[in-house]
Design brief:
disordered N terminus, disordered C terminus, two-stranded antiparallel sheet, 1212 residues, extended, mainly alpha, three-stranded antiparallel sheet
């Protein structure tokens, strides 16, 4: 039985349950209809609101709950939307806005429109028979719904929807009820559904796609105030609206996806020129295609069957059928390849299973002139007022993973960031071009106005997506997409990252310094992380069959990233990056196998942490050539080759991207060998010579032709140099093969042998016990042969010492006898054989290994080296020198050698045992690890101890006393000089001072120190605030200057009095000693009882030294060394001042207030430089003199006029 086409299109009885159809159809009839009495206008039924609710219940509880589409199919066939719902909405005019019944009915119609216009996208594995039966019909029905909504005859349906939501939006956020929030979401979802519905590409149409196109949607949104509503909601996001951000994002995505922002900001003339250029390029491409077709067109015998033989190498013949075999040799071979039976299976790809058609953003969309203007106005207003609030709110919601965030939200978020950033850059370029044109037309009069416009339109309009939080979230999203193989989401993220980089590049060229600084900081943050570099390379390497969208995104990102990174590295030669690679840590098990155990767990952790820090610090300096070498791998080459295979369909920008990459590989990085592969060479040849190559009239043909020509020249030259390359053309190149083909020899990397870790015995053991540990370790490792060799070395050394010592004794005895025979008498005794006193001239003994294995062990075996060091042997040479020698030094006594030899033998035959089942290995540790641990502990102790900015009382201070230009305290210097005075005294004087010190004196000193510390504390508290009060540019402080000069004057007076007092005492004591000497001479050498009592050492001046040196009868006691300090102001010196305050006058010495360091020196002291006597001493000279005094105290000895010998008494 034949079925008519109309009957096939109409639903048959078994498609929908008749009872369901009857119920739903009766509800549609009861809703209302046209009335003759009302002149054909739509009239509601008696219970329209209840009917609307019943229909909504049928959709919810039958279609959605049972996963069927029967009710929606019935409603579509009943023409509910176009015939009833839209008519009801059209009947609610603006004059009836306050009519509550009309509002309620309109709201019910809007609630019913939402599920009817909701996109129907069901995964293939969940499709049922009903879905396959109803889905095509419902998708076409939704297109009709959209056409009726956008182009209603009597009313603006979208405007009516806006009026439904305005009362709820006008209410303050805190006063809104859940019903108000629901109404706002209903209105926004309705706009989303209208923007989302498109003509299905796989279903027939009636030729009226223009009425439901993107241009028609944009025009309707503009005319019916939908754009204004979206701007209101988006600009108030976070203040008046909170949960509507995802819906607004969805609307914007479906409005803007596929639209080129560059064309959006072109004026009519530019757009016309661009359109004309595109049309011209299409015609040119068509002509090139026809020309290539004519070159290989079939012959006039194409109506007949053809079978030809093709001769190959070695006289082999292949049969090929078809007219194409007659066109030429290349075509014949191509036909032969196509006739092969095996076909490579095509990978469909897992990524296509769950993708939704509505989420695709790669399809390009063209707009009409009016739609382009309307959308441009909306985008400009959105960037000015709504971009930052909306995207900042969305970023926070995505970070917190709010419930309203759905699966597609992050992808839409990053795609729209990319779109709006590109639109902002296009708008700025367009404004700049308009400014230049106006400057030419109007002159320079309006440049100021346009400059102010640029100031107002800074990049702060998109600042919400150029912060660190967005970068962190984007990196997380990219890593998640790569791990989960979500290629569509990953493509959107890469587009976003690429556009951020391009925007930062535009910011760097901005005339505003603030934008330039922000661009510099952003680049530093992006390029600082080495993980970002690795991620970009991974995107490029991971391309296999992800589709052209992923291919285009990853190659564009790699192209932009490497160009900007190269430029930034040139401008910042000291670029630092942070590597998150883990440092290689030493394995504890391997160390235990070698017999090395760390001192304690803390030592191991500290060592590992230090090694990690050192590894990171070594990797922090960025080297662009190293990054480029990782970037130019075979996988990256394959990705760009895959892009180049689409050369016939690529844009000039995409062709330039591939060209720049291959040029970088072949000439900048000198890796042309990696391009020497048969399929790559064939692709390059086909691009230039055809068939289906590049158009010779295109812009990029010349660049590609030059590049490919140079690559072929390199290939021919390399084939002449390396004939083996002919075989390697069939394969991809591994690094070792690339090195051989480039240089002609294999890359042999010499492994540098490193010395083992130096060991030591844990502290707390005597020398003989340490030898026992070293011997025990070698015994446990079955290295008794090494112990015997060490014993032999020591035995030989002992014998050599004995022979040398006997020879030395014999030589001295022979020399003594020769002197006696010559008449020279000497009382020098002959040393006995074996005495240690002869060891000062012992020669060093060189230790030679007996075998090659022993020589290697002396370098690699750190246990053997430990035993040699404990025995007293010394290694001469660098740490990593394998040929370094061992010697027995001349300073090693013979008895030490004998003791080591005996102990090693005893421990070998009776190995030591230890408590707690410990072995000898447990007492070894790494010397380097121990030193690092000690440094860390010392650093921690220094951090915890009192520094220069803190006191022992626990209070810390920010500043030093008086700032960096203040003079330092003299307390430490005085104590140092006093210590040097004490050390210069005799032992008897020290004993006397030590005996006179008692507990009372110690308590007094302690009290003085505490009082001084308290005074210093109060002083520094004042300084802490004084440093902030005074301005840094004040040249002087009169009060501080007066105090300073007063202190200087007091010091000069004290110094002068001390000097005069010391001179007077010296003269009196000298005169007394002269009289005593004369008396001793007259009495025949009798000595006074009090002769043994030592007098106190007193300072003396240079003049005093000259006066004392002129007395010819003064004995050695008068020649005592006297030391003088120019700043002698301690309590001892104060006690020497005359209580009457008078300074004694001495002939030959002038009393003055000038310190000693500033007085003119006598001619008898040529080593002391002469200072100015008429004025104060400069600060530099005083500081230099004080430093000299710290290094060595000023010592002046009395000039000795009598004899060079020191005598103890006159009797001698």
């Amino acid at each position: 039985m034949e079925m008519d086409i109309r009957e096939w299109a109409q639903p048959v009885g078994d498609q929908v349950d008749p009872e369901v159809r009857a119920y739903v159809s009766s509800l549609v009839t009861a809703l209302g209809g046209t009335s003759i009495e009302e002149h054909g206008r739509y009239v509601l039924g008696d219970d329209a609101i209840a009917v609307l609710k019943d229909i909504r219940r049928w959709i919810k509880f039958y279609d959605e709950k049972l996963n069927r589409l029967d009710v929606q199919r019935i409603l579509a066939e009943s023409n509910l939307v176009k015939g009833d719902l839209l008519e009801i909405l059209a009947s609610w005019t603006e004059a009836q806005t306050n009519n509550k019944l009309k509002f309620k009915v309109s709201l019910g119609c809007l609630e019913l429109l939402i599920p009817l216009t909701w996109p129907i996208e069901i995964e293939d594995q969940l499709m049922k028979v009903n879905h396959h039966r109803h889905l095509p019909y419902l998708r076409l029905a939704q297109v009709e719904y959209k056409r009726a909504i956008l182009h209603h005859d009597t009313a603006k349906i979208l405007r009516t929807a806006v009026r439904i939501g305005l009362p709820s939006m006008a209410a303050p956020k805190n006063d809104r009820t859940p019903r108000d929030e629901g109404i706002i979401r209903l209105v926004l979802y309705f706009f989303r559904n209208v923007a989302l519905i498109e003509q299905p590409s796989d279903l027939p149409s009636n030729g009226e796609e223009v009425e439901v196109s993107r241009s028609a949607t944009i025009d309707a949104f503009h005319k019916q105030d939908v754009f204004q509503l979206l701007l209101t909601v988006a600009s108030s996001m976070g203040d008046e609206f909170a949960k509507e951000d995802v819906i607004v994002l969805d609307i914007l995505f479906h409005l803007l996806k596929g639209i080129n922002p560059e064309k959006l900001f072109q004026d009519d003339q530019e757009h016309a020129q661009a359109t004309g250029s595109e049309f011209k390029a299409l015609l040119q491409k068509e002509n090139a295609m026809l020309a290539g077709y004519k070159r290989h067109a079939p012959t006039r015998h194409n109506r007949f069957g053809t079978m030809v033989w093709i001769k190959r190498d070695n006289e082999k013949v292949t049969t090929v059928t078809g007219q194409k075999a007659l066109a030429g040799q290349d075509t014949a071979f191509s036909q032969m390849d196509k006739s092969k039976k095996w076909n490579k299976p095509r990978h469909r790809g897992k990524q296509n299973l769950d993708e939704k058609d509505s989420s695709q953003f790669t399809k390009r969309v063209s707009l009409s002139s009016s739609a382009r203007k309307n959308l441009r106005t909306f985008v400009e207003e959105f960037l000015d007022s709504s971009f930052n609030p909306l995207f900042q709110h969305l970023r926070k919601a995505i970070e917190r993973e709010m419930e309203r965030i759905v699966e597609e939200t992050p992808m839409q978020f990053y795609y729209l960031i990319s779109w709006f950033l590109q639109a902002e850059c296009a708008r700025r370029r367009s404004a700049k071009e308009r400014k230049e044109k106006l400057a030419l037309v109007k002159g320079k009069g309006r440049l100021g106005e346009l400059a102010e416009l640029d100031e107002d339109e800074a990049f702060g309009l998109v600042a919400s997506v150029l912060n660190q939080e967005t970068f962190v979230l984007l990196n997380r999203f990219l890593q998640k997409g790569q791990d989960n193989k979500e290629w569509k989401e990953l493509s959107a993220g890469m587009k976003c990252f690429t556009q951020i980089l391009l925007t930062v590049q535009e910011m760097a060229l901005s005339p505003l310094e603030e934008d330039q600084e922000i661009a510099e900081n952003i680049q530093n943050r992006i390029f600082y992380e080495e993980s970002t570099h690795d991620r970009i390379i991974a995107f490029l390497r991971d391309y296999k069959t992800q589709g052209f969208a992923y291919l285009d995104s990853c190659t564009e990102l790699a192209h932009v990233f490497i160009r900007m990174l190269e430029q930034y590295a040139k401008e910042n030669t000291d670029l630092q990056i942070r590597s998150r690679q883990r440092a290689r840590r030493k394995q504890r098990k391997a160390a235990e196998e070698d017999g090395v155990v760390a001192a304690d767990p803390e030592d191991v952790n500290v060592e590992d942490e230090i090694e990690t820090v050192q590894q990171v610090s070594r990797e922090r300096r960025f080297e662009f050539q190293r990054f480029a070498a990782r970037f130019m791998t075979q996988s990256s080459i394959n990705t760009f080759i895959a892009l180049t295979t689409y050369h016939a369909d690529l844009t000039p920008e995409q062709l330039k991207r591939a060209h720049r990459f291959f040029h970088r590989v072949a000439f900048k990085n000198h890796l042309s060998t990696v391009l020497f592969r048969v399929d790559i060479i064939q692709l390059f040849h086909r691009m230039i010579k055809g068939p289906h190559g590049l158009d010779p009239q295109s812009e990029s043909f010349t660049e590609w032709s030059s590049l490919i020509q140079q690559i072929f020249r390199k290939l021919i030259k390399r084939l002449e140099e390396r004939p083996g390359l002919m075989v390697e053309l069939l394969f991809s190149k591994i690094p070792s093969m690339m090195f051989y083909l480039e240089n002609g020899y294999d890359d042999v990397k010499e492994k540098k042998i490193r010395a083992p870790a130096e060991l030591e015995v844990k502290p707390g053991m005597e020398w003989d016990e340490q030898l026992g540990v070293a011997v025990g370790v070698l015994i446990n490792q079955n290295k008794s042969d090494d112990i015997n060799w060490v014993k032999g070395v020591l035995e030989n050394a002992k014998e050599e010492r004995e022979v040398w010592q006997a020879a030395e004794v014999s030589r001295k005895e022979t020399a003594r006898k020769a002197l006696e025979e010559a008449g020279v008498i000497t009382n020098e005794p002959v040393a006995e054989d074996g005495g240690d006193d002869e060891g000062r001239g012992w020669p060093s003994i060189h230790v030679k290994p007996d075998t090659t294995t022993r020589s290697i062990a002396l370098f690699k075996d750190n246990k053997l080296r430990l035993l040699l060091k404990l025995a007293g042997l010394v290694r001469i040479g660098d740490i990593d020198d394998e040929d370094a020698s061992w010697i027995i030094p001349s300073t090693l006594p013979t008895d030490k050698i004998e003791d080591a030899l005996k102990l090693i033998g005893d421990h070998q035959f009776a190995p030591p045992t230890y408590d707690d089942d410990k072995t000898a290995e447990d007492f070894l540790r790494s010397k380097a690890a121990a030193e690092r641990t000690q440094r860390v502990k010392k650093a921690a102790f220094d951090d915890d101890s009192d520094g220069p900015g803190s006191l022992s009382g626990g209070e810390e201070f920010e500043f030093e006393a008086g700032g960096p230009t203040a003079r330092k305290s003299d307390v430490a210097k005085k104590r140092k000089l006093q210590r040097k005075k004490t050390t210069s005294a005799s032992d008897e004087d020290e004993d006397a001072l030590a005996g006179s010190e008692d507990e009372a004196a110690a308590a007094a000193r302690k009290a003085r120190r505490a009082a001084k510390k308290l005074t210093d504390l109060e002083k520094r508290r004042k300084i802490k605030s004084d440093m902030y009060v005074h301005s840094s540019d004040e040249e002087s402080d009169e009060e501080k200057d007066r105090a300073f000069f007063a202190r200087e004057e007091e010091q000069r007076k004290n110094a002068g009095r001390n000097i005069m007092k010391a001179v007077a005492k010296a003269e009196k004591e000298g005169a007394r000693e002269v009289v005593g000497a004369r008396k001793r001479k007259s009495t025949g050498g009798t000595v006074e009882k009090g002769r043994g009592k030592k007098r106190k050492v007193t300072p003396a001046s240079d003049e005093d030294e000259d006066m004392l040196g002129q007395r010819g009868d003064v004995n050695e006691k008068e020649d005592e060394i006297v030391e003088i300090s120019s700043e002698h102001s301690s309590s001892d010196s104060d006690s020497d001042i005359d209580p009457e305050g008078e300074s004694p006058t001495i002939s030959g010495a002038t009393t003055t207030d000038t310190p000693l360091s500033s007085q003119p020196r006598a001619a008898s002291s040529p080593a002391v430089s002469t200072a100015k006597s008429n004025g104060d001493v400069s600060m530099k000279d005083a500081a230099r003199e004080r430093e000299d005094e710290d290094d060595a105290p000023v010592v002046r000895a009395a000039v000795r006029r009598r004899g060079p010998f020191v005598v103890e008494s006159d009797s001698e």
